[in-house]
């Protein structure tokens, strides 16, 4: 059977290529200090985490790599956040090469974008808005850290640029050993990072709609259905997540601390856990209810056509609307007086169950591997937390990942990769096109429930 390089397959191969090149670069002697010894699987883990903008790490990132190694990671984060095909298409456009319909489809698949938008316009908009927001974020962080630290100018610039890119790309990598826990009470740093995470996770199409809505033109553009859904669902998740975390941790992590600090940490973690992976509180010390809340937030993730992962806010909204419609005995899924296509509903259901199945199966696999190696059970909730964090490309850890064995690390690597390209894209990449069925089987009812 002839192998055809379809757009989904090209997306898969492009990310694989970036991981291979990144691993080679991080294996160079100048990437790590002479006194630091790091295995190949750990290098591969770190590179995959960067390309897939996850942020999970098995080593202390701040001390394991040199300036060169960290710069490689930063470049990989930027490439992974924007998408390899986005950058290669930009290069093709710059040198005057035509993209064509095939290239359009690859870009749309990479960005999870289905709307008919000029790819040339979309690519340039994405690049401009990305570097503009990252630049503003870096500048604000520069002013803040200049005011509260005694770092050199170069150190402040480096820290500001790295964390701005990491936040906007929703990667969660930080240059501090305790991530951002040292700034848990700093409202300015928290708000800057949260703003970058939200802009990166809301989706480029939503940003385009907002700009069109706020423009001074006489015929202002209205928010699309996707933008309304993404914005409303994101707002609900942020508020609900923060409220739950504050309540569940009031007598635990926040005990003895100012209420204002607890509120700030709750909102920051609610925003970050959707796909970014930064933390201002020790995740391993959270109560089980809080871990479950974070698992739900990580599972849902960011919005379509964004730098984030998860099943996506719009997917979750469609599923909720479908369930609501079933209770109302409606034949169509309706959101804001618009009927959702059956294709979109089917894809939402497929994505949900693919993610859910992957989480369950790989949580069981990791638990089994841990038992076979150590002779005792690992905390299953924390293992599931790591798997959801990986497939949601979040990067939060309950303390399990650094102690994983090589086989378990490989499972997490695969999960991060699947989370970045999307299970549906993988299925489409490995599937072969079937012949069209020209017949329909007889219909029959079965007992449900």
From TrEMBL:
The chain crosses the membrane at residues 12-32, 44-65, 71-95, 122-145, 151-176, 188-211, 231-248, 283-303, 309-327, 348-373, 379-398, 410-432. The lineage of its organism: Bacteria, Pseudomonadati, Candidatus Omnitrophota, Candidatus Omnitrophus. Keywords: Cell membrane, Ion transport, Membrane, Potassium, Potassium transport, Transmembrane, Transmembrane helix, Transport. It comes from the Bacteria. This is Potassium uptake protein, TrkH family. It comes from Candidatus Omnitrophus magneticus. The keyword Membrane applies. InterPro entries: Cat_transpt, TrkH. It is found in: Cell membrane. Its main location: membrane. It is a multi-pass membrane protein. One of its GO terms (molecular function) is potassium:chloride symporter activity. Pfam families: TrkH (PF02386).
